[in-house]
Every structure is written in structure tokens, then in C-alpha cells.
């Protein structure tokens, strides 16, 4: 089997979020994961009885697939607990497609939950021994923010990117969020607001940083053949690619070039499309610099031109390239590992179910996940029936 | 495994006042953080060596805690061709610049024991008094 054989072989047939925002101290991550799983399966016309492939990652749970399978009463014949931070779920989608096409499973459930917001202040955060000695901790970086701040500072130094251009990203995300009733932050936001916000780790202010919310999500995947018999329009996986080059920010070879250059090249090659064919982008915007770096590395503009590219509302509602139409991690929701939400939003946009923020004629969308400190990069190209 | 445990050897050498790294006998790469295998060539013959402690700031961020003085977090490219996170001391954090030449020294009373910090080289980043 060659990578091209994966093109259009599998499809997303159900997506759902759990309750988002702040669910309160009596709720647990696994409950949000289960709530999302139930809703995504219901949308797909399936039940937990149909699931024979389980793909999940939950921060702080080293054996998340075992927890989730027990909780849902699933006995999977294929399990994947790949944990590459926020990109895990896009990676799971790739792995699910490989598993389904090789016959290892028929119905894959990708699922995530987190109570990151409600955890703060109730001492529920898991702590354990460090996996390796840290060669960064002695300098008191505020992680993950400082890692992204160092990338932003380098991008500004090398390419003349400005704080105003970073702020444009936050403003565009907020303008999308104002069209999404599920978004956490919906108040009007200006570039001036972002620039005047408290500086957390220069050059990033608090408004250059993602939200901290609770939330879960689920995605159901099956073969294209089976998808044809299910209630919702299938959203096909056309291409997927993965890459990672480092874990710690101090080991990232060039802070202005991410492994998304490779992950996207692999995804485009499998899909047989290029950025010029893409109608919209859902990417992991943990910080404003992410959007600029990923638009460059996914090929929507040249390296160093991301700041110009996002200016003047080009990625906001009404702009040339819709980016993060749900409001993104900056304004919609960010429970710590956001990567499942780009898949959910891309699916809804391709189906034409995105309400006030629906874009016309979405045939091909890119969903891109980021994990660690600009470390793991996973790109998926999704398409509707017309893309096959 | 034989030979010194990498992290223990590293902390002992920092405590002794040096800027340690490893050098691969196979491909001559500088290796940091310490390891038991070379990430460039896969070779297992890593020799401990010592950086001269001179480098260039590759990137920098300033953190301003509510209850303490602002401080810098920097990535420094050492002249021996390895990169480390650190901080530049002895000048105001806001005066730290990318491209600035810096020199290492060991701070004995770091927050979690001895640590390597950097100072700006002569003529770098010291603003004239107004
Ligand atoms: Zn080597």
C-alpha cells in the first residue's frame, strides 16, 4: 500500500464537542470525553457497541485508552494512545485511517477531555517525576508561553514581524468567535487592547495567549464504503502527514521554521492538492505567533511574510482566507490539547453546518495540530464529496 | 552502563565552575544536553569537554513577575556549536538583545543549585547614563 492509497479511503462520520468553558469542580475530564463520544457516535448513527478502534490522549493520564475504554464499555481490537501533545488527535486520525484500511478496525473513535480550567485552584493537577532532567527549568521560563515567546522574538528579529501583526491574529480569532455561540470569549477586541494587555513573556501579552477552558471532543472515523450508508455527509481524509524534530524549545533547530513544513508536504502529496486548492484552514493557535508560523509552513505565504499575510483582516470574517472559523484556541476554547477541535470545525464547515460562521463552498479544508513547544506537527487535508 | 551518568557528570562539572558539553568522537559534533548517544551520528563515544563560555544570544524573552524584578530567558548559541537556555544577568532584562555577545559564568546560588548564567560582553547592551 502506498500513502496515496489512503486518499479518500476513510471518512469522518461524526463529530461533537462536550460541554465547554467551565464545567465546575465536580466534573472530570473523562466525563467530558465520554459526553463528546456519545454525541459524536449518535450523530454518526452508531453506538459505543460499534466502536472497535479507540484513539485517545488525556493530559496526566498515562493509560488514557484503558480509562476511556472501561468507562465507555468498549473492548477495542485496536488501540492507539499516541501522546504528542495537542497534535495527538490529528495524528490519531492518520493512524485510524491506516488501521481501518489495513483491516485492523472498522469504526474508530478519537476522543479527548480536559477540565484544565476547573482544575486550577483545586489541586487536582497530576504531578510526577520528570521524565528527564530539565536543562531549562533553572532559568524559570513560564512554559509553554516563554517557548512561543522566544519563537516570536526571533521571528520579529529576523523578518521584521511586529507586535501589531501578532495582535491582528488575536483580533481575527475574536471576530470569528463572535459568530460562534459556543465560543468562550466573545467580547469585542481591538489591536490596541492586545497591545495594552499585560506582558506575560515578551513579546507576548496575555491576549496573545490561548484561553484556559474545560472541554472535550470526539471524532468518529470509518471506511468510505461504510460512511456512504451513514446519516451525515462523509468528510473524507484526503491526506495526512506528521513530523517532529525536537521536544524542548532550546533544542528547536530554527525557531522560525517548524516541522509543519514537512507534515504539510506529506499531507499535500497524499491528497494530491496544494495550498492553492484549500478553501479554509483550521490550525492550532495556542499563541498568536503559531498562526503566522503555520500559515508560512503550510505554504499559504512565503517564510517571513506571515505577519503581512494576517494583516488587514485577511484571515478574519470576510477576508481572503478563512482561518480558525470557530474562534480558535485564542477565543473559542482551549482545554490544553486543542488539536481535536480543528477536525471538528473543518468537518462542520465542509458539511455546511457551521451556522452564522459558515463559509460558502468549502470543499477542501486543512486541519493542523501542534504539540509540545512547536514540536509535533500533524497536518490533515479533509474534503467533501466533490474533492474525491 | 559504564562511564559517568550524564546528568550527574554535568551537574558536578557545573558545580566545579565550568561550562560542560560533550563532543562526539565519531562526527565531532558538540552534544548538549548530555546523552549516552550522539543525536547527529548515533555514535556512543561521547567525550566530556568544556566550552570557553562565549556565545551569541539567539532569542530572548523578558518575564515580569508581579512580585519580583523582571528577568530574561534567553537561548544562547555557544561558539562550540551548541545551544542552551539561560539568562543574562548584570544588565536590565529589557536591554538584552538578540545577536548580543555574551560570556558564561557559574552562579553558585541559583534557584535550584549552581547554574550557568551569562553577562553581556564589553560594549554590548550597556546604555550610557542619561
Ligand atoms: Zn556523532
Automatic annotation (TrEMBL), chain A:
Q: Which Gene3D superfamilies match?
A: 3.40.47.10
Which CDD domains did the record assign? SCP-x_thiolase (cd00829)
Q: Which residues form the Thiolase C-terminal domain?
A: 241-383
Domain of life per record: Bacteria
Checking InterPro entries in the record gives: Thiolase (IPR002155), Thiolase-like (IPR016039), Thiolase_C_2 (IPR055140)
**According to its UniProt record, what is one Pfam family this protein matches?**
Thiolase_C_1
Q: Which NCBIfam families match?
A: PRK06158.1 (NF004811)
Query: What's the protein called, per UniProt?
Result: Thiolase
To which species is this protein native?
A: Microbispora amethystogenes
Upper taxonomic lineage:
Bacteria, Bacillati, Actinomycetota, Actinomycetes, Streptosporangiales
UniProtKB/TrEMBL annotation, chain B:
Q: What PANTHER family does its record include?
A: BLR3430 PROTEIN
Task: Give the superkingdom in one word.
Answer: Bacteria
A Pfam family hit: OB_ChsH2_C
Cite the InterPro entries for this sequence: ChsH2_C (IPR002878), NA-bd_OB-fold (IPR012340), Thioester_dehydratase-like (IPR052513)
ChsH2 C-terminal OB-fold domain sequence ranges = 48-106
Q: What is this protein called?
A: ChsH2 C-terminal OB-fold domain-containing protein
Amino acid at each position: 500500500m502506498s500513502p496515496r492509497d489512503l486518499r479518500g479511503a476513510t471518512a469522518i462520520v461524526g463529530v461533537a464537542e462536550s460541554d465547554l468553558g467551565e464545567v465546575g469542580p465536580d466534573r472530570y475530564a473523562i466525563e467530558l470525553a465520554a459526553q463528546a463520544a456519545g454525541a459524536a457516535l449518535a450523530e454518526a448513527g452508531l453506538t459505543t457497541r460499534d466502536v472497535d478502534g479507540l484513539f485517545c490522549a488525556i493530559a496526566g493520564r498515562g493509560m488514557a485508552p484503558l480509562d476511556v475504554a472501561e468507562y465507555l464499555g468498549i473492548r477495542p481490537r485496536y488501540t492507539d494512545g499516541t501522546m504528542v501533545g495537542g497534535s495527538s488527535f490529528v495524528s490519531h486520525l492518520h493512524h485510524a485511517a491506516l488501521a481501518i484500511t489495513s483491516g485492523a478496525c472498522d469504526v474508530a473513535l478519537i476522543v479527548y477531555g480536559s477540565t484544565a480550567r476547573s482544575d486550577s485552584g483545586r489541586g487536582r493537577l497530576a504531578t510526577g517525576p520528570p521524565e528527564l532532567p530539565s536543562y531549562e527549568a533553572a532559568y524559570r521560563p513560564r512554559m509553554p508561553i516563554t517557548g512561543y515567546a522566544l519563537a516570536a522574538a526571533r521571528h520579529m528579529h529576523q523578518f521584521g514581524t511586529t507586535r501589531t501583526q501578532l495582535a491582528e491574529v488575536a483580533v481575527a480569532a475574536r471576530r470569528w468567535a463572535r459568530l460562534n455561540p459556543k465560543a468562550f470569549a466573545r467580547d469585542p477586541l481591538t489591536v490596541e487592547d492586545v497591545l495594552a494587555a499585560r506582558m506575560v513573556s515578551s513579546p507576548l501579552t496575555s491576549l496573545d495567549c490561548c484561553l484556559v477552558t474545560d472541554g472535550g471532543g470526539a471524532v468518529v472515523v470509518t471506511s468510505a464504503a461504510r460512511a456512504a450508508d451513514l446519516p451525515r455527509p462523509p468528510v473524507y481524509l484526503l491526506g495526512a502527514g506528521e513530523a517532529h524534530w525536537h521536544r524542548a524549545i532550546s533544542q528547536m533547530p530554527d525557531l522560525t521554521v517548524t516541522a509543519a513544513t514537512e507534515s504539510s508536504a506529506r499531507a499535500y502529496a497524499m491528497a494530491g492538492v496544494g495550498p492553492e486548492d484549500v478553501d479554509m484552514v483550521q490550525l492550532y493557535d495556542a499563541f498568536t505567533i503559531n498562526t503566522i508560523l503555520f500559515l508560512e509552513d503550510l505554504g499559504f505565504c512565503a517564510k517571513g511574510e506571515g505577519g503581512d499575510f494576517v494583516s488587514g483582516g485577511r484571515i478574519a470574517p470576510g477576508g481572503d482566507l478563512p482561518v480558525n472559523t470557530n474562534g480558535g484556541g485564542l477565543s473559542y476554547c482551549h482545554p490544553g490539547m486543542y488539536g481535536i477541535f480543528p477536525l471538528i470545525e473543518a468537518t462542520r464547515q465542509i458539511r455546511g453546518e457551521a451556522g452564522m460562521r459558515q463559509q460558502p463552498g468549502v470543499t477542501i479544508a486543512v486541519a493542523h495540530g501542534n504539540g509540545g513547544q512547536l514540536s509535533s506537527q500533524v497536518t490533515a487535508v479533509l474534503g467533501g464529496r466533490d474533492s474525491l | 552502563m559504564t562511564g559517568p551518568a550524564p546528568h550527574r557528570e554535568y551537574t558536578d562539572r557545573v558545580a566545579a565552575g565550568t561550562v560542560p558539553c560533550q563532543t562526539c568522537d565519531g562526527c565531532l559534533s558538540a552534544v548538549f544536553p548530555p546523552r549516552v548517544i550522539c543525536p547527529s551520528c548515533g555514535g556512543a563515544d561521547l567525550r566530556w569537554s568544556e566550552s570557553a563560555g562565549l556565545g551569541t544570544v539567539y532569542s530572548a524573552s523578558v518575564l515580569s513577575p508581579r512580585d519580583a524584578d523582571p528577568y530574561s530567558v534567553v537561548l544562547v548559541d555557544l561558539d562550540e556549536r551548541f545551544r542552551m537556555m539561560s539568562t543574562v544577568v548584570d544588565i536590565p532584562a529589557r536591554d538584552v538583545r538578540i545577536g548580543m555577545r555574551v560570556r558564561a559564568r557559574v552562579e553558585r546560588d541559583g534557584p535550584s543549585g549552581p547554574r550557568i548564567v551569562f553577562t553581556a560582553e564589553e560594549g554590548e547592551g550597556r546604555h550610557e547614563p542619561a
